[in-house]
Amino acid sequence: MSNADVRGRFIWHELLTTDTAAAAAFYPKVVPWRTQPSSMPGYTLWMAGQTQIGGLMALPPDAAGTPPHWLIYVGTSSVDATCGQAQGLGAKVLKPPADIPNVGRFAVLSDPQGATFALFTPAPGAPPPGPQPTQGGFSWHELATTDVAGALRFYGELFGWRKGPGHDMGAMGVYQIFEHGGDQVGGMANVQGPSTPPSWLSYVHVADSSRAVAAVKAGGGRLLHGPMEVPGGSWIALLMDPQGGAFAVQQAPRAAAQAKPAAAKPPAAPKPAPAKPAAAAPQSAPAPAAAKPAAARPAAAKRAKKKAVRRAKRKVARKVRTTKRKVARVKRRVGRKVARKVRSTARKARRVARRVRRSARRSARRGRRR
User: Fold this and answer.
1) Contact between residue 102 and residue 33 where contact means Cβ atoms under 8 Å apart
2) If you placed Cys at 141, which of 46, 186, 221, 264 could pair as Cys (CB 3.0 to 4.6 Å)?
């Protein structure tokens, strides 16, 4: 594989999780994958047919507290040079460049807004990547960020990505498509809510998005959004595995050979952390030229906004009810405490009165004797 050919390509996808056995059992029920051992202990390969498309490993010990997440690897002709360039553009190097024997060189960074990604340069003589499978391949990559324009400039400098069409999604802002090699390969959008950290989300091709959603629910995962049909006939759903790793699925249009993933609201994906890459040679994931997300219909955006308002109102109402219950409990506790103090004071007053009466009687008796 020529290093010049890998620049800007999504080459590898790696799941870092708290329970690798559970993840290995969960994902093949949702997407057309199977697992395969690698030459590196503790590292498992994701296979779509005969194609290696990603890896699975446990979160490293130094990532305690970091939620499970997917890490994307983007190709570059020189990991070291790109790391230096990225730092000059405001990125942070989370894991310095290191070699994977007979595989390549990698590094893990966070972009200026905080989204984590990895760089990869194949080793000289590494075999070229095979074709991306129709089912089970990664079809689209979506960045949720706090600065779409800044992210586009940053990744454009590093990987040669170019600005494509933008779609106005109303309250959710503009969904900005980016291109690589003349093909539309991903999108960027604003994070939804101040508590949502910037992150990358990858879409996987499936034959039936509804079936994938049902499998996620049956396996203990969560549906974050969808399934929804987007202009062009594609169906997408945003999901979370049982351990908390966010991912998405895309179903091709029934009457078309190629699909267009949706410009949907990004999920509350957890911020990824530095990770150890695969021991097996990553395979490139060329994005199909027709994988173009479309802007959600205005009506859908309005419905989403109304739902968000209703959720907020319900949340406020719950908080009000909870506060009222707490106040009532405090009042009861205070009332009981005051009542106890009043009773105690009354008892003390009665005891004092008795002593005073006894003293008065004694004094009277002594006066009569005199």
Assistant:
1) no
2) 186
